[in-house]
UniProtKB/TrEMBL annotation:
One of its GO terms (biological process) is lipid metabolic process. Residues 338-376 form the C-type lectin domain. InterPro entries: C-type_lectin-like (IPR001304), C-type_lectin-like/link_sf (IPR016186), CTDL_fold (IPR016187), PLC-like_Pdiesterase_TIM-brl (IPR017946), Telomere_Capping_Maintenance (IPR051008). Gene3D superfamilies: Mannose-Binding Protein A, subunit A, Phosphatidylinositol (PI) phosphodiesterase. Residues 1-25 form the signal peptide. This is C-type lectin domain-containing protein. It is found in: Membrane.
Length: 478
């Protein structure tokens, strides 16, 4: 017991270190130096909203989000930030000395899970935000606490309402009005104070939240697609779960907050493709990392693991790959579509897109070049083959075998399956539906061998009966 108390007091001291001595960072430090922020906070981290965004990465990740527009939300892959609120830009981890990435110096301190603000992570392409709400110091705050460490809560910890408002402010920008954000509230105890949770959600997000009532009454418990959510004016989904304590779910009256609908797992337990850590077509999974480090006490990278390559999770169609210290370089690892520098020319209604066999990335191609076509099964969307023959890019001819259609992979897993089917060949992919001013071509249904054979069989029977009747009449009346 005495050791436990000592460790807790040590924890509190380290968390408040800046109050016991000077803390002059003297400019940007750590990841904030690497990204080239124009201005940093007093403790050396990028001012919220100031992290430069790479336009190519941003466009490529937007492409990958849009490809999933007709997927049920339950199956959509969303880039996630573990403990997004616990970031140095907002003053958490004031005295951190652990330099990303691990392994760390054993004696360094790493309290914060993130370097940059929620706003900056959203700007980079994160769409899954985790918030830990704790009622302490007479307010509902965002704090990284265990079940019995309320003493470590600080009055300068961000308010829960401020975290919700920050997300809402980002969504209110004209360029972000149609973006979908999933908020994960990791509440570890039944704290009550429903009004301090539901109130800010109502005030700042309001009717944009896809509620449990929407799911159960409007959609009969079946998750709608991204397209349908947008049509309904819904672009926020909030769910809650506990990773400590009783394991109960605290939805604060089911007004806005869904019960956890995915399995939350430590990244250390993830097994790469094709095992994919137990991911199937049916289940929803979140793999989260942990970058925190307490000298001589605990090391998150060892105990939980850290995500350093989003692609390894995306090609397993993990819904929520949750990284720590999200930064522009980590976000680039999530790109599996466009090659860097592509599209090399403006995308027009007649642009032709190919997946090159040498690197399995997308390029704008010469439309008259002859290549195989990427063919996706109309029922089993994970099933890919190539067309029998090469040809120029076309939308007006049947280029795929029966039961297959000329298509484009909608997520990382299907992209991986196309890579395997192409076997190093460059192939045309049907990105046309996402191009400006696209119009669906009218194609006659392709008769399948089975139905075609059946039809011919019936026609032959009719012809034989007709011929027999004709011959009979000729004989009788000859």
């Amino acid at each position: 017991m005495e050791l436990s108390i000592f460790l807790k007091l040590t924890f509190i001291f380290l968390l408040n270190w800046n109050k016991f001595g000077p803390n002059d960072a003297g400019g940007c430090q750590m990841l904030s130096i690497d990204v080239g922020c124009p201005e940093c906070t007093y403790n050396g981290h990028c001012v919220p909203g100031s992290v430069p965004v790479d336009t190519w990465t941003s466009f490529a990740l937007q492409t990958q989000r849009e490809l999933q527009i007709d997927e049920p939300f339950y199956h959509v892959s969303i880039l996630d930030a573990h403990n997004a609120y616990n970031n140095r830009a907002d003053g958490y981890g004031k005295n951190d000395t652990c330099a990303w990435p691990p392994p760390y110096n054993e004696l360094c301190l790493g309290v914060a899970n993130q370097e940059f603000s929620i706003t900056d992570m959203l700007n980079m392409g994160i769409r899954g935000v985790e918030l830990d709400n704790w009622f302490c110091k007479e307010e509902m705050r965002l704090a990284h606490l265990g079940t019995d460490l309320r003493l470590a809560c600080q009055e300068d910890d961000k308010l829960f309402s401020e975290g919700i408002k920050e997300i809402a402010d980002w969504l209110n920008k004209e360029t972000n009005l149609h973006e979908i954000v999933r908020i994960y509230i990791n509440e570890k105890q039944d704290q009550g104070h429903d009004e301090l949770v539901n109130g800010p959600i109502e005030e700042y997000l309001g009717s944009r939240v896809f509620t449990p009532r929407d799911l159960n009454e409007t959609y009969g418990g079946v998750w709608p697609t991204i397209r349908q959510l947008r049509k309904d004016g819904k672009n926020v989904v909030i769910a809650t779960g506990s990773t400590a304590g009783s394991g109960e779910l605290y939805t604060h009256g089911d007004v806005f907050i869904h019960k956890l609908f995915w399995s939350d797992r430590r990244f250390k337990l993830f097994t790469p493709y094709p095992e994919c850590g137990g991911k199937t077509d049916e289940n929803a999974v979140r793999y989260y990392s942990d970058s925190t480090h307490w000298p001589l006490i605990s090391d998150g990278p060892t105990n939980v693991g850290v995500v350093t390559d989003y692609w390894e999770l995306l090609k397993c169609r993990i819904q929520y790959p949750a990284g720590d210290h999200v930064n522009p370089q980590l976000m680039k690892t999530a790109v599996f579509t466009w090659a860097e520098g592509e599209p090399s020319s403006p995308l027009l209604s007649n642009t032709c897109v190919m997946m090159k066999g040498t690197d399995n990335r997308w390029y704008v191609g010469e439309c008259d070049e002859e290549m195989y076509y990427a063919c996706q099964h109309v029922h089993d969307l994970n099933n890919w083959i190539l067309s029998e023959h090469r040809g120029p890019y076309t939308l007006t001819e049947h280029v795929c075998p029966p039961y297959y259609k000329f298509s484009v992979p909608q997520n990382g897993y299907r992209h991986q399956k196309l890579i395997e089917a192409s076997r190093g060949e460059s192939v045309w992919i049907n990105y046309s539906p996402w191009l400006p001013y696209y119009e669906e071509p009218s194609l006659e249904p392709l008769t399948t061998p089975k139905s075609g054979s059946a039809t011919m069989h019936v026609l032959w029977k009719i012809w034989i009966v007709f011929a027999a009747a004709t011959m009979t009449n000729l004989i009788l009346w000859g």
